[in-house]
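Async update (no meeting this week)

Hi team, since we skipped the sync, here's where things stand on the single-chain job. The sequence we agreed to prioritize is pasted below, unchanged from the tracker. I ran it this morning and attached the output directly underneath so nobody has to dig for it. Comments welcome in thread, and please keep replies under the output.
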Amino acid sequence: MRAIFVTGTDTGVGKTFITGLLADYFIGKGRSAVTQKWIVTGSTDDIRVHSKIMGLASTENRNLIVPYSFKFAASPHLAANLERKPINEEKIKKAFLELSRRYDFVIVEGTGGILVPISRKSLLIDIVEALRLPVILVVHNRLGAINHTLLSIEALKKRGIPIIGMVFNNLPKTKKVILDDNQRIIGEISGVTVLGELPRSHNIRMLKDRFKAIGDKIDP
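Output:
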C-alpha cells in the first residue's frame, strides 16, 4: 500500500484535514509522503492546508500535485466546462504515477464524493478504479449519514475498490446517541472497518494527537 485515495460522503466533510493528517502520520514514521488533489475547484487551497498540517513551508511539484485547478466552486465537469478546459484522465494518471516514483506514499484527496462527474462520460471513481487505489471514506457524521455512507460503500464495492476503512468526522451539536449509532449501524451493515472518529476542529495539534490511533490502524 503506497497510495491511498481519501473520499467522502459529500463535499465539505473534512477530507482535506484527514488527507493532511494521514500524510503527516506517515512522515512521522520516517516515510516520505506527499498529498495530491487531482482537481481543485473554487478559491480554497486544500494543498496549502495539507502543507500546514504537515509542517511544510512551501509546496514543491505543484503541477504534479494539482493537475487541474478551476476558479468556479462546482462539480469538476461544470467548472471545466465553464473554463473550456476539458479534464484529461491520462494527465491525472501520469501526474500520480510520477509522484509515486518520487515518494514512499501518495495521499490523494478526492473532489466532493466518489461519483462526481469529471466530464459527461467519466466519473472520479473511474480513475480510482483504473489506478487500483485503496480508499478511506470520510463520513460527515450527522443525521442522514447512514444513507450517504452506505450508498458510497455500495458504489466502491461494485467496482471492486478496496476500502481501508471509515473515519467519522463528527458534526458539532449533533446528539451523541446519533453519532454513536451511525458508527455502529454503518459498520454492522457494511462490514467496513470503523477506523475512528474526530471532532470538527481547526486545532491541528489536537487533531494530530487524536489521529495517531487512526493512523496505527491504517499502518499497524
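Quick observations from my side:
The chain is about 45% helix and 20% strand.
The longest strand covers residues 105-113.
Reply here if anything looks off.
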